[in-house]
Design goal:
It contains 14 helices and 13 strands. The chain is of the alpha/beta class. Helix 7 links the parallel strand 11 (231-233) and strand 12. The longest helix is centred in the C-terminal third of the chain and has 23 residues, at 310-332.
Length: 430
């Protein structure tokens, strides 16, 4: 059973695990201080599409696809996905997810959507109603400006309290078991409206609710800010962050140096002219799914997560995941497949398991990582050619040497993994 700690907080007896996470961003995000923590960055705001709304759908496809790829899970292994965006009827999410075939709960929590999706997914898993759940959201500067403020071509002036809506998406895969950070409690906030009506001062409008939710969490869990390595809010920006700190100081509570806001982390506010900071549900989602979870893995020494560069990540994914799919697809795209039905052994089933994939998703993943993937495919072709030449020439010694070398490498890496050694290279950012 779950345990209620107070009016707003539930402690989870069987805490869900964050199995994988992925962050996608646009051009401005790629120019910010957290660029190295994104899994994919676009050079413009269109992500290869013709409209900004379609670009937002593309971001969600990418984020979910990469999170599934990291978890080595096909879409059908997710029981549900909770996701949303800032657009009317969550249209970006609806079109982004329609090819995945995952049972979908659409959320409109505005800037709280990432936290809301993770909270609901965690409750579902902890309650025994799901094994694996996706949680995802996005925002896009141009779609948000067009819907809520002024058309982008209008070029209206921004006030000092204005924040920049992040063009970004973040996704996590939650599981009932596995290794990784665990979600041990969920606190639901309340609507707190102090009458702030300025659309260019969202930090001040959101700050009272953020203060109220944090206060409830501290009271329900009988903890204080100093008990945590980090207390983070989503996108209050400079003014909203200062207001929350001031509210707590009036209660005699010092939030300390570990109190941060994702809206103050995503951009270099001075160099990028971001005024009060970042906003939008893609802000907290991308900072969490890129920077924070990677740093957390580094601090906690989780064995299944490493910190690397986007380029090196693409190379490793091409070899360890995408190449395996190319091999499985090539084997299944053979006239002998149905003729040999009933004669397949365990090795054939293991090799071809991943071939039953979602073509639309994998076309996009292959295309986006084409340089790295074509290189590993070329290397494999050369290696296969060496095997073919040795067999055609009847060169038993060469064939024996190649088999022995590959077999020894496989046994060695399995032995190191069984001993608990970290067999992978770690690429750390300077």
């Amino acid at each position: 059973m779950q345990k209620r700690l107070g009016r707003q907080t539930v402690a989870l007896e069987h805490p869900p695990v964050i199995l994988s996470h992925a962050a996608v961003g646009g051009k401005q995000e790629g120019e910010g201080p957290l660029a190295d923590y994104f899994d994919h960055l676009s050079e413009d705001s269109f992500f290869g599409e013709k409209t900004w709304e379609k670009a937002e759908s593309a971001m969600q496809k990418l984020a979910l696809g990469k999170a599934l790829e990291k978890a080595t899970l096909p879409p059908e292994e997710l029981d549900y996905i909770f996701a949303g965006d800032l657009l009317n009827q969550c249209i970006g999410t609806s079109f982004g997810l329609r090819d995945f075939g995952i049972p979908f709960y659409g959320l409109y929590g505005a800037c709280s959507t990432m936290g809301e999706s993770m909270a609901l997914g965690s409750l579902l898993i902890a309650g025994g109603f799901a094994r694996r759940v996706g949680a995802m959201t996005s925002s896009h500067f141009c779609t948000a400006e067009r819907q809520y403020r002024m058309p982008v071509p209008y070029g209206n002036q921004r006030t000092p309290t204005a924040q920049w809506t992040a063009t970004a998406s973040g996704c996590v895969i939650l599981g009932a078991e596995g290794e990784g950070p665990k979600i041990t409690a969920v606190t639901c906030g309340k609507i707190v409206d102090k009458g702030i009506c300025d659309v260019n001062n969202m930090g001040a409008a959101m700050a009272p609710a953020a203060y109220d939710t944090l206060s409830a969490f501290f009271q329900d869990t009988k903890t204080k800010p100093q008990d945590y390595d980090l207390v983070a809010t989503g996108d209050l920006g400079e003014l909203g962050h200062a207001i929350v700190r001031d509210f707590f100081s009036r209660d005699g509570i010092d939030m300390g140096e570990h109190f941060q806001d994702c809206g103050l982390l995503l951009y270099d506010r001075e160099k990028q002219d971001m005024h009060a900071g970042a906003s939008g549900c893609g802000c907290s989602a991308s900072v969490l799914c890129g920077y924070l979870l990677r740093r957390m893995a580094d601090w906690c020494k989780f064995g299944d997560v490493i910190v690397t560069t986007p380029a090196r990540h693409d190379e490793m994914i091409a070899y360890t995941s995408q190449l395996m799919h190319v091999i499985a697809l090539s084997v299944c795209d053979n006239d002998e497949l149905f003729a040999c039905q009933g004669f397949e052994g365990g090795s054939f089933r293991d090799c071809t398991r991943v071939a039953a994939l979602d073509p639309a998703m994998w076309v996009q993943l292959f295309s986006l990582n084409a340089p790295a993937l074509t290189q590993v495919v070329r290397t494999l072709e050369n290696r296969m050619g060496q095997y073919r030449q040795a067999m055609e020439a009847g060169d038993v010694e060469a064939l024996r040497d190649m088999l022995a070398r590959a077999s020894d490498r496989k046994k060695r890496i399995d032995l190191e993994r069984a001993r608990g050694d970290d067999v992978r290279p770690v690429f750390r950012n300077s």
